[in-house]
Sequence to fold (733 residues):
Amino acid sequence: MQFTVALVGQPNVGKSVIMNLLTGAGAVVSNYPGTTVEITQGYMEGPSGRITVIDTPGTYSLHSDTEEQRVAQRVLLEAGVDLIVNVADARNLSRNLYLTLQLLDLDIPMVLALNQMDMAREAGMIIDTTALEEKLQIPVTPMIASKGEGLEELEKLIWKAAGSPETLPARATSPMRFSPEIERVIGMLQGQIEQIIPEEEGKHRLHPSRALAIHLMEHDALDEDLFSIYPELAHLVEDLQEKVASKRFQCAGCFRGCWFCPAADDSHPVLPTCLERTRQAQAITTAVVRRCRLEGPVSTRVRLERLLDNPSTGIPILALVAYLAVRLTLEILEFAEEFVPVILEPVVGFIAGLAGSFRQGSLAEIIITAIPEGVLLPFEVVMPTMLSIYLIMALLEDSGLMPRIAVMMDRIMSFLKIPGQSIIPFLLGFGCRAPGVLATRTLPNRESRIVVSTLLAIPIPCAATLGIITGVARAFGADLRVIYGAIAVVFLLLARLVARYLQADSELVMEIPPVRLPSARAVAGKAWMRMESFFKQVLPVLMITGIGVRVLLNTGILSVLSRLDPISTGLFGITGQSLVSVAVTVVQRYAAPMVLLNLPLGAREATIAASMISLSLPCIPVSYLIAREFGWKTLAAIYGLALGITLSTGFVLNLILPAM
Amino acid sequence: MTLLDTRPGDEVTIDTARAGRGAMRRLWDLGLLPGTKVKTVAAHPFRGPILVRVGECTVAVGRKLASRIYVTK
Ligand SMILES: Nc1nc2c(ncn2[C@@H]2O[C@H](COP(=O)(O)OP(=O)(O)O)[C@@H](O)[C@H]2O)c(=O)[nH]1
Ligand SMILES: [Mg+2]
Fold:
């Protein structure tokens, strides 16, 4: 039997670092709240074979409000987890214990890894772990994961559990007891659940009946499923709700917004289970934590943090950091443009030689001459940009600077009705939009994620787009001011339009992690993880489509489109063939200059075509991601918008641009 | 008074808050709940976010939301 361990904890507590320690390479390390959206799986040696270790997304609680929480919850319930390693941040003990108390209800054997003990010590907290063990009735092991301290102890606990699971019996009682009034309701619901839902291995729909009863009281997205299968339960809950509405239960003034609340949408919920759980967590914390006066000089780290969190010193420093980050990216890009072709020279030469051996105009010859173009452009422009952006992003994230930059940008971004955190996907988008779309996962809600993804998909110029614009401007003397102006205008208008339409709730509530010295291993590991997905998923698509476009060009199929000339010249002032280059960007941005640079264009025509290209449909990898993250309907809407925008851009520019 | 009326260095207790469900839950998750003591650390200029210290961690709260978090000194 395979033994499975799940690492569960709030965002940013050190789960990924512990995962790495337990299983070796393969886990991402981050400092940005909510980065671990995907689950990481790894293996460690156990007493009888391999032990599976799952790193779950960071979750503040087990209420299924967000995607991350639902994923974490499903892993716990469905993946056959044998042992939960609850990772907690010792510095924020009471907040972390809220989740711990919820986890204990699940009746899965559990140990608590009390991490970041160094940070707690720095804050003057002395934690009595033995007392904590007694309160929670589970093993508690202190750790400083970033230094590898406490690993052996944790490994021993996992081994012991895997070796003889019977030594860790499912818990009969959780230390969490609510007030008698609530316990009565729970008891009643529990009885009903046991009658209505069939039992499987002591659990009902994967929950112990008590946990399910509490879930029902706190309203959960999982409820809908449950109610459709067991309508009796729905009636029961409705009934309770009525009693609540008639003031049978007192409102505790918590503001979680549970189902029972007659004013649930007005943030004034009633049943106080959440509040009582919080109080319990606070009481435990008070009992086990002793605060001592801090001695000695303030550490450099704390002094730096104070400097950064004071706006009058922090804003200039962070602005400088952001500026340097962008500068560094550009420098690396410039360096790569000179350096990479030198390295690739022999490969290109070899391929050219190979092409010579085929009959001119044959398909084989066309394909082979297309390879250097398909390879060179991605390697020259995109890869260096992405590598540098990933490295810099990882540095900014792990040092704790990124969330601070997001806060600094919040005011500026709020004019666009989007959260300050969107600066991160936008910055990424200047490299490649695909990781930008993925990075929107750090945003607080679906609406702002869609707004930001739309902006990424249409007006934000990625490295490839920027390359096209510069190339076209150089070749035909196109007016860069007009092109960038068009992008800026569209960006602003679109941001306002989409944000208004979706009514994104852009209220900022964000944890600001401590400032830390990032570890080189963590930063490199993270940048590598991201590059790996580029190599495996994006690069092949880019190369294949590049070759495909070349084939289309060389075989002369595209010249058919000159028939479109009358329409396209009339509307946009450009020939039918340049209109094709706009269409080609859908497949691949780098392909557009191949089309454009092969056409006889005037400066005015090139300006219009380049503007239209910059504002056209998102490329295939981005489209795929958008469809995956938000569904095909959203993608269709974005395509419609993009089409409208690119056409009206051409139309308007043709109207207002004087002859050049 | 609201969180918006506090100055850097002020220590206050949260009474209640009024906001959309999503924002409320994020407040709750980060420990900004009724009865909690928080300390205002900084206020960003030009009506930017407010930084508060909750226990040992720092949380940034936008102005709009801060004006709907009711506190007492
Ligand atoms: N000082 C200190 N930092 C830690 C410790 N454990 C993890 N970190 C840092 O905390 C940050 C978040 O860690 P991570 O594993 O990504 O957290 P996760 O979100 O729970 O996966 C990283 O920058 C780590 O280097 C620790 O015990 N002490
Ligand atoms: Mg993680």
In short: Residues 311-356 of chain A form the longest helix (46 residues). Residues 27-36, 248-271 of chain A have pLDDT under 50 and may be disordered. The pocket of magnesium ion (ligand 2) is lined by residues A 15-16, 30, 36 (CB under 6 Å). Chain A is about 60% helix and 10% strand.
